[in-house]
Automatic annotation (TrEMBL):
One of its GO terms (biological process) is smooth muscle cell differentiation. FG-GAP repeats lie at residues 34-95, 109-170, 175-227, 294-359, 360-418, 422-485. Keywords: Calcium, Cell adhesion, Cleavage on pair of basic residues, Disulfide bond, Glycoprotein, Integrin, Membrane, Metal-binding, Receptor, Repeat, Signal, Transmembrane, Transmembrane helix. It is a single-pass type I membrane protein. PANTHER family: INTEGRIN ALPHA (PTHR23220), INTEGRIN ALPHA-8 (PTHR23220:SF5). Residues 470-626 form the Integrin alpha first immunoglubulin-like domain. The chain crosses the membrane at residues 998-1020. Belongs to the integrin alpha chain family. Pfam families: FG-GAP (PF01839), Integrin_A_Ig_1 (PF08441), Integrin_A_Ig_2 (PF20805), Integrin_A_Ig_3 (PF20806), Integrin_alpha (PF00357). Residues 774-987 form the Integrin alpha third immunoglobulin-like domain. One of its GO terms (molecular function) is metal ion binding. This is Integrin subunit alpha 8.
Length: 1049
C-alpha cells in the first residue's frame, strides 16, 4: 500500500533495467556446435526466452521457456504471462497451464470486485526446475491488501508444477493483510529463484520493507501438501524469511538474485543473495545461513552503481570439491587514462579455499561498450571433459547490431581462463528492441545424451531460444621422430628413383593415437607433413620427400580404435649443397593434422572436435653436419673496419663517395656471411669498385628490410677462418633537402651462426656543407645622356613619356654561381627619384624575370603618363636570360664593384637626393640560375635644363642579402653584396648655327687640289723623287748585263 510521503513503484522496470544501451566484436569456436543448434520461437512481443531451464522427467530432457508478456486462455487477463514446454528434438512449444483462472473477487459494498490482478503480472519472468518439479513466478502480480480500498500492491506470486505438470499449487509468501507501509506490499516475490540441492525453494523479494528486500525459503512439499485454491493467505510451517532491517538498508534490493552453495564446511548448503544497491550503491553479495537466515559473509563491489550482485552463480570452477561464487556487475565502467569512462561490465570469481575463506577475486571484463557483460552467468558443468567446470557469461547487447553475445570460459586449477574459448553470436537483428541474446542462460544438462552438458540461450527481444549442444572432444597424441638427427651431406647413401644420383637422406617417423569421451572407435585425420617448414614461402627448401620430390605431403591417417598407436615412415633427402646457402639453421619438420569429419554421417548427432587446448602441430628438427669440430658448432670472430674516400660533401656538387671496407674473420667459419650497409636517405647505391686491383669485387644487392634501404654483399658461405680483404662500395649523395650536418652509413657483417653471429657495428659519418657564390651585375641603358635634346621642347603637363625626356633603363641581374642553391634573398634598390621636389628619374614601369617579387616604398607613375613597353632587343633578351653577349654588355656597360674614375660630375644618389626604395624577394635559385630586375624610367629633362652646363651622374644603388638556403644545413655566413649603376648627364659644346653655300665648298676643294699639284711638281723638279744607289749596285748591274749578252751569243 502507499506510505505517507513515500512514492512507491514496483520493480518491474528493474527486470529491464539493463536493457537500455549498447554496442560490438567476436571469436573462435570450441565444442558448442553452432551449426546444429535447435531454435524455439514464441509469440511475437511475448518476451519468449526471458527465462529458460532444462526439465528432466522420466529420463527425458526438455526445455522450459518463460514468456512474461504472453497472453493465455485466462478470462479477462491481458498479457498475464506464460511458461512453455518445448520437447527435444525440436517440436512445437506448448503453454503449461499453471493457472487458468480469472482474478479472484470479493464482495465490497454489495459489489464483487477483484482482490488480485493478474494482467501484466509477468508470469514466467523466472522459471526453475529441479528433479521433475517446476516453479514459475509472476513478480508483478498485484494483491488488494486492504479490502475497503481499491489500492493494490505488487506482492508477487509463484506456481509449482509436479508430476509432469499434472498438479499445480500457488505460493505467494508476501501476500497478507498487513497494511503497514514498511511491510511486504512491494515484495515482488519470485523476482529471483533457486533450489537447494535437497529440493527446498529459495525466493527473492527485493521490494519488501521499503525495498530493503528479503529472501524466503520453504519446502516444495509444504507448498503441495494440503494446498487449497481458496486458502489465499496460507502460511507454511517451515517457511523462513529475512526480516526488516534498520532504515539505512532501505533501497538495497536484497534478493535481486539468489543461488545456493556450501561455504561453511558443514555439508549444509547456504544461500547466496545479491544486493546490487547496498553498501551505498557499491553493491554486495551476502552468504546467508540456510538454517536461520543469518548473514555470514559479504563481498562488496568496487565501483558505485556498477550493479554488483545483479546476478550470482555458484560452481566448483577449479574442481577442488569446494563451491566458488561468481558475481556479475554489468554496469561496471572502465576508465582508461583521461578518457571518458566506458561501460563494459565485469564478472568476479571468488574461489573458496576453505570454510569462510576465499581468494581475492579473479576479474573478467567485457570488451564492448554497453554490451552489459555479466547480465547472466551460468554454470555449464564440464563442457570439454577436461576435469574442470566451465562458465557461460552473457553480454546481451554486445555484437553486431546489438544482437548479443555469450562468452564461454573454461575452468582450470586456478580459476577461469582469462580469454574465452568460444563466443556465440546472436543471429537475430533488433526489431522494436534489441534481441537480448544471452540475457538468460542455463547449462549443466545433457539434452542429447552424449555425456557432454549443453546450453540454453534466451533472446527475449526476438522471441527466440537456442539450444547449443556440446561436441565430443578428441584429444590426439602425435609424435614425430627423425633418424638420424644430424645429416652428413657427404654421406650419400640413397639413390634417387629413376636416376644414378646419390643423395644424403634420413627417415621421418610419425606416430598418432587418440582418446575422448563418447568418441567412436574409428576416427580419421587429414595430415600434412612439411619439410624445412621454418623457411619462408618461396625460399629454397633444403630437403624433399624421396618419393615425391616435394617439400610437403598430404595424406590421411585412419586410427581404428582409441589409444592404438598408428605409425608411418617417410624417407627424406638433402639437396646438393650448391642449391642452397643455409647450412647452419635446423631443418624443421612439422606435422599438421585436422579431424576428418566426413566419416561422421549421423544427421542428428553433433560431430566431434579436436581439443582446443592442444596444439594440432608437432615439430622436430634435424641438423646439417658442418666442419666445426666435434660439437658441430662454428664460433666465428668477425671484425669490420671502414673509411670513406672523402669526409666533406658540398651540396650542389656531384658528391660521389666510395667506402673502403675491410671485413675479416679471425675465428671459425661464418656461414651465410654478408656485409650489411644501411644507406642514409641522402645516398643512392651506384655499384662496386671494379677498377682497383687492391680491392676485391663483391656481389652486392640493393634491398629493403623493414622499410630500411640496405646494400647486402655476399662474403662467402662459409666465410672461412682467416679471411681478410678490402673492397670498395660506391654511392652517389644528392638528396640534401632534409639532410642534417652529416650523413651516416651503418655497416656490419652478419652470419647465420648461433654464437657470435655478427661483427662490430661501424658508423661512418661524412660532413655536409652548403656553399654558394652569388654575384650581382647591372647596366644603364644608355650609359649617358647628352643635353640639350635636339628638337625637344618641355611641356608644362606631360601626358606621354616622350614629353618627360629620354628613356633611361637600369637592369640588375642576381646570379648564383653555386654550387649550392639559395632560396630566399632580399634585394633592395635605392632609386634617385627627386631633389628638392623636382623629379630626376621618373619611373614608368618595373619588369622582373625569374623568381622575383617586388614592391615600392611609394607609388610610381603618379601622373598616369602613357607609356608603351617595347619588345626587348635580342641583346637585351640574351642578357636577361644569362647569355654572354660581349658586344652588348661591354666592360664599361656592366657595373661591377671597381675603382671609380676621376670625374668632375656631381653624383646624385640616396645620400643627397630623395630615393624611392624598391624591395624585392628572390625565390629559389639553383646553380647557374639568375633573377633579373629591369626599371624603365624617363629623365625629367626640365629639372636639368634649369641647371645649364652642370655635369651630373645619377646613381641607383642595389644590394642583396641571402637569408636562407633550401637545406637544413646553413652556412656560417650567407652571401651578400651591393653595386651602384650610373647614368651620366653631359652637355654638348655650344654651336653657331649657319649654312655654308655649296659653291664655297666646291671652290675650297678645287683650290686645295691646285696647291697639291704645284707642290708635287716643285718637288719633282728638285729631284726629290730620284733615288741614290750605292757603287756596288751599279757594278753588279753591269756584270749582269755582260753575262746576259755572252749567253745570247
Amino acid at each position: 500500500m502507499l506510505a505517507p510521503g513515500r512514492r512507491w513503484e514496483p520493480l518491474a522496470p528493474l527486470l529491464l533495467l539493463l536493457s537500455g544501451m549498447l554496442r560490438p566484436p567476436g571469436l573462435a569456436a570450441f565444442n558448442l556446435d553452432e551449426e546444429k543448434l535447435t531454435v524455439y520461437s514464441g509469440p511475437e512481443s511475448s518476451y519468449f526466452g526471458y527465462a529458460v531451464d532444462f526439465h528432466h522427467y522420466a529420463g527425458a530432457v526438455s526445455v522450459l521457456v518463460g514468456a512474461p508478456k504472453a497472453n493465455t486462455t485466462q478470462p479477462d487477463i491481458q498479457e498475464g504471462g506464460a511458461v512453455y514446454y518445448c520437447p527435444w528434438p525440436a517440436a512445437e512449444c506448448k503453454q503449461i497451464p499453471f493457472d487458468t483462472t480469472n482474478n479472484r473477487k470479493i464482495k465490497v459494498n454489495s459489489t464483487r470486485e477483484p482482490i488480485e490482478f493478474k494482467s501484466n503480472q509477468w508470469f514466467g519472468a523466472t522459471v526453475k526446475a529441479h528433479k521433475g518439479k517446476v516453479v514459475a513466478c509472476a513478480p508483478l502480480y498485484h494483491w488488494r491488501t486492504l479490502k475497503a480500498t481499491p489500492e493494490k500492491d505488487p506482492v508477487g506470486t509463484c506456481y509449482v508444477a509436479i508430476q509432469n505438470f499434472s498438479a499445480y499449487a500457488e505460493y505467494s509468501p508476501c501476500r497478507n493483510s498487513n497494511a503497514d507501509p514498511e511491510g511486504q506490499g512491494f515484495c515482488q516475490a519470485g523476482f529471483s529463484l533457486d533450489f537447494y540441492k535437497n529440493g527446498d525453494l529459495i525466493v527473492g523479494g527485493p521490494g519488501s520493507f521499503y525495498w530493503q528486500g528479503q529472501v524466503i525459503t520453504t519446502s516444495i512439499a509444504d507448498i503441495i501438501t494440503d494446498y487449497s485454491f481458496k486458502d489465499i493467505l496460507r502460511k507454511l510451517t517451515r517457511e523462513k524469511q529475512t526480516g526488516v532491517a534498520p532504515p539505512i538498508y532501505d533501497d538495497n534490493y536484497l534478493g535481486y538474485s539468489v543461488a545456493a552453495g556450501e561455504f561453511t564446511g558443514d555439508l549444509e548448503q547456504e544461500l547466496v543473495a545479491g544486493v546490487p544497491r547496498g553498501a551505498q550503491n557499491f553493491g554486495y553479495v551476502s552468504i546467508i545461513n540456510s538454517t536461520d537466515l543469518t548473514f555470514i559473509q559479504n563481498f562488496t563491489g568496487e565501483q558505485m552503481a556498477s550493479y554488483f550482485g545483479y546476478t550470482v552463480a555458484v560452481s566448483d570452477v577449479n574442481s577442488d570439491g569446494l563451491d566458488d561464487i561468481l558475481v556479475g556487475a554489468p554496469l561496471f565502467m572502465e576508465r582508461e587514462f583521461e578518457s571518458k569512462p566506458k561501460e563494459v561490465g565485469q564478472v568476479y570469481l571468488y574461489l573458496q579455499e576453505s570454510a569462510f575463506y576465499f581468494r581475492d577475486a579473479q576479474i573478467l571484463s567485457g570488451t564492448e561498450v554497453f554490451g552489459r557483460f555479466g547480465s547472466a552467468i551460468a554454470h555449464l558443468g564440464d563442457l570439454n571433459q577436461d576435469g574442470y567446470n566451465d562458465i557461460a557469461i552473457g553480454a546481451p547487447f554486445a555484437g553486431e547490431d546489438r544482437r548479443g553475445k555469450v562468452l564461454i570460459y573454461n575452468g582450470h586449477r586456478n580459476g577461469l581462463n582469462a580469454n574465452p574459448s568460444q563466443v556465440l553470436n546472436g543471429a537475430w537483428a533488433s526489431q522494436s528492441m534489441p534481441a537480448g541474446f544471452g540475457f538468460t542462460l542455463r547449462g549443466d544438462s545433457d539434452i542429447d545424451k552424449n555425456d557432454y552438458p549443453d546450453l540454453i540461450v534466451g533472446a527475449f527481444g526476438a522471441g527466440k531460444v537456442a539450444v547449443y549442444r556440446a561436441r565430443p572432444v578428441v584429444t590426439v597424441d602425435a609424435q614425430l621422430m627423425l633418424h638420424p638427427m644430424t645429416v652428413n651431406p657427404d654421406n650419400k647413401t640413397c639413390q634417387l628413383p629413376g636416376s644414378m644420383i646419390m643423395v644424403a637422406c634420413f627417415t621421418v617417423r610419425i606416430c598418432v593415437a587418440f582418446e575422448g569421451q563418447s568418441i567412436s572407435d574409428k576416427i580419421a585425420l587429414q595430415a600434412e607433413l612439411q619439410l624445412d617448414s621454418l623457411k619462408q614461402k618461396g625460399a629454397v627448401k633444403r630437403t624433399l620427400f624421396f618419393d615425391y620430390h616435394q617439400s610437403h605431403h598430404f595424406f590421411p591417417i585412419v586410427i581404428e580404435r582409441q589409444k592404438q598407436l598408428h605409425c608411418r615412415d617417410f624417407v627424406v633427402y638433402l639437396r646438393d649443397e650448391t642449391e642452397f646457402r643455409d647450412k647452419l639453421s635446423p631443418i624443421s619438420v612439422s606435422l599438421n593434422y585436422s579431424l576428418d569429419e566426413s566419416i561422421f554421417v549421423d544427421d542428428l548427432a553433433v560431430k566431434p572436435i579436436l581439443n582446443y587446448y592442444q596444439e594440432s602441430t608437432v615439430r622436430e628438427q634435424a641438423y646439417i653436419l658442418v666442419d666445426c669440430g666435434e660439437d658441430n658448432m662454428c664460433i666465428p670472430d668477425l671484425k669490420l673496419s671502414a673509411t670513406p674516400d672523402k669526409y666533406q660533401l658540398i651540396i650542389g656538387e656531384e658528391n660521389c663517395v666510395m667506402l673502403i671496407i675491410n671485413p675479416r674473420n679471425d675465428g671459425e667459419g661464418a656461414y651465410e656471411a654478408e656485409l650489411h650497409i644501411k644507406i642514409p636517405p641522402e645516398a643512392d647505391y651506384t655499384g662496386v669498385e671494379r677498377n682497383h686491383k687492391a680491392l676485391r669485387v663483391l656481389s652486392c644487392d640493393y634491398k629493403m628490410e623493414n622499410e630500411t634501404r640496405m646494400v647486402v654483399c655476399d662474403l662467402g658461405n662459409p666465410m672461412v677462418a682467416g679471411t681478410n680483404f678490402s673492397t670498395g662500395i660506391r654511392f652517389s649523395v644528392q638528396h640534401f633537402e632534409n639532410a642534417d650536418f652529416s650523413i651516416k652509413f651503418e655497416l656490419q657483417v652478419k652470419s647465420s651462426n648461433k654464437v657470435k653471429p655478427t661483427s662490430n657495428l661501424v658508423n661512418l659519418e661524412i660532413n655536409i656543407s652548403a656553399v654558394a657564390q652569388v654575384q650581382i651585375i647591372g647596366v644603364s641603358r644608355p650609359p649617358q645622356i647628352v643635353l640639350p635634346l635636339h628638337n625637344w621642347e618641355p611641356k608644362d603637363e606631360p601626358t606621354k613619356e616622350e614629353d618627360v625626356g629620354p628613356l633611361v633603363e637600369h637592369i640588375y641581374e642576381l646570379y648564383n654561381i653555386g654550387p649550392s642553391a639559395i632560396n630566399e634573398t632580399l634585394l633592395h634598390v635605392g632609386w634617385p627619384a627627386s631633389s628638392q621636389l623636382e623629379p630626376l628619374l621618373y619611373i614608368l614601369h618595373i619588369q622582373t624575370h625569374g623568381p622575383l617579387q617586388c614592391q615600392t616604398s611609394s607609388a610610381i607613375n603618379i601622373l598616369q603618363i602613357k607609356f608603351a613597353i617595347p619588345q626587348d632587343t635580342p641583346e637585351l633578351t640574351a642578357f636577361l636570360h644569362n647569355s654572354t653577349i660581349p658586344h652588348y654588355v661591354g666592360r664599361r656597360d656592366v657595373t661591377i664593384v671597381e675603382p671609380q674614375r676621376k670625374s668632375y660630375a656631381k653624383i646624385l644618389n640616396c645620400t643627397n637626393v630623395k630615393c624611392l626604395i624598391i624591395s624585392c624577394t628572390v625565390g629559389q635559385l639553383e646553380r647557374g640560375k639568375s633573377a633579373t630586375l629591369k626599371i624603365r624610367s624617363r629623365l625629367w629633362v626640365q629639372t636639368f635644363l634649369q641647371r645649364n652646363n652642370y655635369q651630373y651622374t645619377l646613381s641607383s644603388n642595389v644590394s642583396f642579402e641571402v637569408k636562407k638556403m633550401p637545406y637544413k644545413v646553413q652556412p656560417a655566413k650567407h652571401p651578400e653584396g651591393s653595386i651602384a649603376i650610373r647614368t651620366s648627364i653631359i652637355w654638348a659644346t655650344p654651336n653657331v648655327s649657319f649654312v655654308i653655300p655649296l659653291w664655297v665648298i666646291i671652290l675650297a676643294i678645287l683650290l686645295g687640289l691646285l696647291v697639291l699639284a704645284i707642290l708635287t711638281l716643285a718637288l719633282w723638279k728638285c729631284g726629290f723623287f730620284d733615288r741614290a744607289r750605292p757603287p756596288q749596285d751599279d757594278m753588279a748591274d753591269r756584270e749582269q748585263l755582260t753575262n746576259d749578252k755572252t749567253t745570247d751569243a
